[in-house]
Amino acid sequence: MDVRVGTDIISVARIESLESQHGDRFLRRWFTDEELTYCRSKARPSLHLAARMAAKEAVAKVLRAPWSGPVPWSHVEITLDASGAPSVRLSGEPLEIAQGQGLGSISVSLAHCDDFATATAVCLVPDALHDDSV
Questions:
Q1: Tally: H helices and E strands in the chain
Q2: pTM for this structure?
């Protein structure tokens, strides 16, 4: 087995600006209803939206996919598991890509402060996909 890691960092001010400029159109392109409900329940939703956006970007890096068009961000959903930890739920094209690569579950870790949010995604990769020449 090998490990794939993806990481990303997002400016919270960027999220606030995009939401201010594009409103619901921006939010619906990136986030599911469940994600929006969770983030809006927080004192400062933009922190949590930025963390989820960073997580989605990190997951896309783990998938290493040649997308056929715009990345279907709402098909990479950041949910909470039974213990309250963030987890990844894939659907549509991202799920097909992960299954096609034989990838197992993707784990994520999120963090944020006043100005930035960051996320790291990790996934085990079957030996058949590991290229020793890299």
A1: 4, 5
A2: 0.90
